[in-house]
Amino acid sequence: MSEDRTISALPDGLWTQPQPSVPSGDDTVSEVQRIRTPASFVYDFTPGRAPSRFLRGLAEKKILGEKCPVSGDVYVPSRGMSPVEGLPTTEAVEVGPKATITSFCVVHIGFGENAPPTPFVSALILPDGAAVSLYGTILGIPHGDVRIGMRVEPIWLPDDQLSTSFENITHWEPIDEPDVPAEQLKGHM
Amino acid sequence: MAGSTDSQDLLRAPLTIEFGFSRTTGPVIGAFLTGLIEQRVLGIRDSAGRIVCPPVEYDSLTGEPITEMVEVGTEGVITSWSWVNTPREGQPVQEPHALALIRLDGADTAMMHLVAADSDDAVATGARVRIRWAAERTGQITDIECFELAEES
Prior knowledge:
The structure holds 2 protein chains of 2 kinds.
Chain A: E1 34-36, E2 39-45, H1 49-59, E3 63-67, E4 74-75, E5 91-95, E6 99-107, E7 120-127, E8 134-138, E9 151-156, E10 169-174
Antiparallel strand pairs in A: 3-4, 3-5, 6-7, 6-9, 7-8, 9-10
Chain B: E1 13-19, E2 22-24, H1 26-37, E3 41-45, E4 51-52, E5 69-72, E6 75-84, E7 97-104, E8 111-116, E9 128-133, E10 144-149
Parallel strand pairs in B: 8-10
Antiparallel strand pairs in B: 3-4, 3-5, 6-7, 6-9, 7-8, 9-10
């Protein structure tokens, strides 16, 4: 956020801290009421083997999941094991790119350098063939028209800007396909 | 390729997690920070009559709000310190310096800040220091650029 904005106000009487007496100073200096105190942690991040495979797939505009050897469920991005069975995944499977919105919210306070203009929709998106949903931003449609079950597809960075990054998918946009009934999305959020 | 154990498959990238906090100061901390713009330091009197600096909003003994702010000195004495030989990225001073607790004249508690010194030999508990003000002051603790060693008066 580049500028402050009021996001809430306390009703009269809730704030009980008394006003202190302050020795008089320079009247031309306006009183400090708000400060910025940014905090950051700088990591050297190693995603691990399975997420590395997922990220390498993204560099080729492929969304790769990995299959549970028992249930056949495809997890994306894979951590290299099935969280339900506790077994290593053994088979990489390409999922999507078409996908379905399983849940969403309308974001009114954006943060981060790459946040779209507010309000925008942040959604859980279930790629076709996957058992679990990914996070994504929905653009290309008024936020009030977004629905659970809506069909979407990823919008990729230009080919010459692709890297091993989830940011290769800039956002998702609706496609002209019938909604998926919410019943079918249970357990896939 | 699931299950590969070749460590050369691993990706690695810098990752910065950042929280851009903006917070309200309240009237006590606000007055303290406003004072820094004016090149003066304010403390606050607690229920035992001690001057707490930097000021706190509530009494440490009774928990009641305290309100009588008073001006303290811009010189003081080092009560404890350690030498920072290798400042880390993001610290306000990149040269070796002391990180010290400093009790300002007129205050009964100490504040933490930097002390500029050529070497740790120059720093001692009990040494007198004075504030070096930042040229541009905006109401942040960094309006005090650092403390510097003062001649014994």
